[in-house]
UniProtKB/TrEMBL annotation:
Keyword match Metal-binding: yes
Keywords of the record: Metal-binding, Zinc, Zinc-finger
Organism field: Lithocarpus litseifolius
Classification via InterPro entries: BAH_dom (IPR001025), BAH_sf (IPR043151), Zinc_finger_PHD-type_CS (IPR019786), Znf_FYVE_PHD (IPR011011), Znf_PHD (IPR001965), Znf_PHD-finger (IPR019787), Znf_RING/FYVE/PHD (IPR013083)
Name of the molecule in the record: Chromatin remodeling protein SHL-like
Keyword Zinc on entry: yes
Transmembrane segments: none
Superkingdom per UniProt: Eukaryota
GO function terms (MF aspect): chromatin binding; zinc ion binding
One Pfam family matching this protein: BAH
Residue span, PHD-type domain: 139-190
SUPFAM superfamilies: FYVE/PHD zinc finger
């Protein structure tokens, strides 16, 4: 008669010996991909468990998807360090953890003085079965009406406070970097004459919203 399996127990933390880092529930980690040619997977640890002897340690994780791993693929406004918090959970060996990382909120990420290799940001939750995003609408900017990509240079109009890609306003990146002040076409002196009284009202319009 086979012996029943010993119950597994939950650990408060675990030190991953090959990287000499201690992880706990709530930490974000980089995990070894099945294909060595691919970048490390990004995951959030939900739980750490071991057998009765404290061995065979496994982590129950919630995966972050990179844009190219989503059903819609990578789009122009996705940042190079952007990930989506998915509804995909897995139990993985703790030995596949390659390091710790930080997944920032979108707002916190844009305020970083420097972005390290282990810095990521998340502004969407992602349903892996349907490809749906939450939220499914975000603020859009510029003439092209695209969501903000923190990797792209943009200039802000001092009149309407909208942001513009230099290429969308016939300007080079070098010219944009040299600007001390900028007014978009609608807010320029010529634009003010055309718009007259409507300009004052336009400055108080709600932020433009577009679907993801």
């Amino acid at each position: 008669m086979a012996k029943p399996k010993a119950p597994r127990r939950t650990l408060d933390s675990y030190t991953v010996k090959h990287i000499n880092k201690t992880v706990k529930a709530g930490d974000c980690v980089l995990m070894r991909p099945s294909d060595p040619a691919k970048p490390s997977y990004v995951a959030k640890i939900e739980r750490i468990e071991a057998d009765g002897r404290g061995a065979n340690v496994k982590v129950y994780v919630r995966w972050y998807y990179r844009p190219e791993e989503s059903i819609g693929g990578r789009r122009q406004f996705h940042g190079s360090k952007e990930v989506f918090l998915s509804d995909h959970f897995d139990l993985q060996s703790a030995d596949t953890i390659e390091g710790k990382c930080t997944v920032h909120s979108f707002k916190s990420y844009t305020k970083l003085d420097a972005v390290g290799n282990d810095d990521f940001f998340c502004r969407f939750e992602y349903k892996s079965s349907t490809g749906a995003f939450d939220p499914d609408r975000v603020a859009v900017y510029c003439k092209c009406e695209m969501p903000y990509n923190p990797d792209d240079l943009m200039v802000q109009c001092e009149g309407c406070n909208d942001w513009f890609h230099p290429a969308c306003i016939n300007m080079s990146a070098e010219e944009a970097k040299r600007l001390d002040h900028f007014y978009c076409e609608n807010c320029s002196s010529e634009g003010q004459k055309k718009l007259q009284n409507s300009h004052t009202a336009s400055r108080h319009l709600d932020t433009k919203i577009g679907r993801v």
